[in-house]
Amino acid sequence: MTATDILLILGAYLLGSISTAIILARVMGLPDPRTQGSGNPGATNMLRVGGKKLAAFTLLGDLVKGLIPVLVARLLTADVTILAAVGFAAFLGHLYPVFFGFKGGKGVATALGVLFGLAWPVALATLATWLAMAALFRYSSLSALAAAVTAPIYMWRLNGIREFILMNTALSLLLIWRHRSNIRNLLAGRESRIGKKKHS
To answer: For the stretch 44-81, what's the b/e string if a residue is b when 16 or more beta carbons lie within 10 angstroms of its beta carbon?
Structure first.
């Protein structure tokens, strides 16, 4: 691993650590999204806390910070192991941001940005899964879980690069782990639907 590779991975983590939701909330004078609603600094909770416009900006910001490091890395290396590591580092930055006490979001949009950078057909298939599940059931968490389960399968079938499949599998397992409270709420019938206030 070269010094450039290390810088790419470190830079990806640092960019991933920039929490779009928390920064937008501070700029707009809103409460920290980690203390409101579901407690998650992501687009779905920002929809509850700040409305549709802030939710859209959060979604875009979180997606871009997963996409940009991978695209930059592609300009500097063709090593698929490094590309996979860069994508995973950006994702970890969102989950455990060094700038915000290592208390980040669940990583759905950032993971999608990483997939767009690595293999856009896989990202489109994963996004289609999320949208279909959201349209049918109106649960963001259930949609994210379905996308997490299917994404490595899409990577295997549509891309086939072993390093990307392994990284995607690890990413999906972390996504599922981060949604463990949502899984409990879904099973208990307490999970909030998209656009609805979080149950107390």
So the answer is: bbbbbbbeeebbebbbebbbbbbbbbbebbeeebeeeb
Handedness of CA 89, 90, 91, 97 (dihedral sign): positive
The enclosing H or E element of 70 equals helix 52-76
Domain that holds residue 28: 3-188
Examine residue 194 and state whether it is found in any structural domain, yes or no. no
CA dist 132 and 164 (Å) reads 24
Whether 129 maps to a domain, the answer reads: yes
Interval 138-192: pLDDT, tens: 999 999 999 999 999 999 999 999 999 999 999 999 999 999 999 999 999 999 8
DSSP string of 104-139, one letter each residue? ----HHHHHHHHHHH-HHHHHHHHHHHHHHHHHH--
Q: What is the CA radius of gyration of the chain?
A: 16
The whole-angstrom distance between residue 40's C-alpha and the CA centroid of its chain comes to: 12
Residue 86, domain member (yes or no) = yes
CA-based nearest residue to 117, from 143, 149, 86: 86
- Count of structural domains within the chain: 1
What is the C-alpha separation between 93 and 88, in angstroms, rounded? 9
The answer for residues whose C-beta is within 8 angstroms of residue 189's C-beta and 6 or more apart is none
- What pTM was estimated for this model as a whole? 0.93
